[in-house]
Amino acid sequence: MSPVYLDHNATTPLDPRVRDVMVPWLGERFGNPSSIHRRGREAREAMERAREHVAALIGARPGEIVFTASGTESNNTVLETVCRTAGGRGRIVISGFEHPSIRRAAERLAAQGMELVQVPPDANGTVSADRFAEALTPDTRLACLMLANNELGTLQPAAEVARRCRERGIPILVDAVQAVAKVPVDVTELGADYLVLGGHKFHGPLGAAALWVRSGVPLEPLLVGGGQEGQRRASTGNVPALVGLGEACRLAALELPERMRSLAELRDRFEAGLADVPDVRIHCAGAPRLPQTSNVAFPGLEGEALLLRLDAAGFCVSTGSACSSGRPEPSPTLLALGIPAREALASLRVSFGITNTVAEVDSFLNALHREVASLRSLLGAGV
Ligand SMILES: Cc1ncc(COP(=O)(O)O)c(C=O)c1O
Q1: Among residues 59, 119, 299, 334, which is most buried (max CB within 10 A)?
Q2: From CA 34, how far away is CA 226, in angstroms rounded?
Q3: How far apart are the C-alpha atoms of 193 and 127, rounded to whole Å?
Q4: Looking at the predicted structure, is the pLDDT value of residue 178 above 80?
């Protein structure tokens, strides 16, 4: 039996409707979108249609969309090129729990002489717009704030922070990789300069992502070579994957309200079903969150041991911890909230997707109750 997949913030299964529109582009409809013959023109048209769907989902203009291969590439492009072209001096302000594709790119720039300031989130998993604004100085070259946190699902005040940045003439990058297609995202309402999304987080294919760049805002290419993507990203477009990204965006735009409703129903059912597990703690339960992410601590247990038990029982979830030298390290995101290391190590992230069912939630709850009780009794027996 295939496992019940509850790790959609890591990646999502390809929607069969998306796969259907991709298949011809993996076969007979091949072509280089830069070629001027018929095959090239057809590939180009398919890519441009995809660009329109991506733009429509976030209220942008198609010409503002730069296709990339991943959220990581999009984030790196902005940090590397915006800061480097600013002379490699000055300040970068990011939140204290940005994704590593922002944090590590910023740290690399800091190692080369820029100043990196990280604004910590509060205990509720939210970065205060006031605190963020306090870190903005006249020499700030770039601000970065994610729209939804990947581990907690908490929504960030990106529109308010963007307003503060605009008042000071500071460009802002909003990493919306976890937010797009899960909550409404509109670049006009957000008022940012750069926004990043990635198709594999919402039932599109891996290898296709986008960087939105507000008209008139500069962007240097990270990859240089041919003049593709309006000189903003060299290399031959990955037509099948981009066609898939476009379709995933088109479907998300049509289905977003219903997806939000049904995902929230699954998440709420799951969280209500935890009530009779002794000592559980749902992180940031009171904060505005994505409709489908739950991060839960089971104090006294090791999240990784629980994850492996659940995996053996047929359920895929995740911990935010990283394993280095055989010992799990607590999630930096949970630590940034002031959660003690032991509790961070006892946490699991459960992220639902559009194909999950109520029956799957109920069987997961049964397995979770069983495995938590079993691990606790082993611990109680000193095993
Ligand atoms: C918030 C956030 N930003 C960026 C990324 C990186 O995206 P990708 O896996 O497409 O490189 C992720 C992936 O998990 C993410 O959660």
Answers
A1: 334
A2: 10
A3: 19
A4: yes
327-329 and 322-324 beta bridge pairing: antiparallel
Among 357, 349, 243, 365, smallest CA distance to 8 is for 349
Residue in 76, 101, 242, 290 to alter for ligand 1 test, most ligand atoms within 8 A of Cβ? 101
Q: Report yes or no: 89 and 139 within 8 Å, Cβ to Cβ.
A: yes
| CA distances to 46, 118, 178, 259, 294 from 244, in Å | 10, 35, 18, 19, 28
Q: What is the largest CA-CA distance in the chain?
A: 73
Q: Is 80 exceeded by the pLDDT of residue 320?
A: no
- Which pTM was predicted? 0.97
Tell me the CA–centroid distance for residue 363 and ligand 1, in Å: 29
Structure tokens at 327: 């010992």
How far is ligand 1, taken at its centre, from the CA of residue 16, in Å?
22
Q: Is the pLDDT of residue 171 over 80?
A: yes
Instruction: Tell me the catalytic residues.
Output: 323
CB atoms within 10 A of CB 369: 14
Instruction: Report pLDDT digits (tens) over 256-298.
Output: 999 999 999 999 999 999 998 888 999 999 999 999 999 999 9
For the chain, count helices (H), then strands (E): 13, 14
Distance in Å, CA 41 to ligand 1 centroid: 32
Contact status, residue 313 vs residue 371, Cβ threshold 8 Å? yes
The residues facing 95 across adjacent strands are 119
What number does the ligand 1 atom closest to the CA of 198 have? Answer: 10
Band of the pLDDT at 128, cuts 50, 70, 90? very high
Pocket-forming residues, ligand 1, beta carbon under 6 Å: 70-72, 75, 99, 101, 146, 150, 175, 177-178, 198, 209
Q: At residue 13, what is the residue type?
A: P
Strand segments, DSSP code E, in 80-160 are 91-95, 115-119, 140-146
Domains of the chain: 4-12+256-380 (3.90.1150.10), 16-251 (3.40.640.10)
| Ligand 1, pocket-test mutation among 127, 201, 318, most atoms within 8 A of CB | 201
Query: Token pair 């960030």 is at which residue?
Result: 156
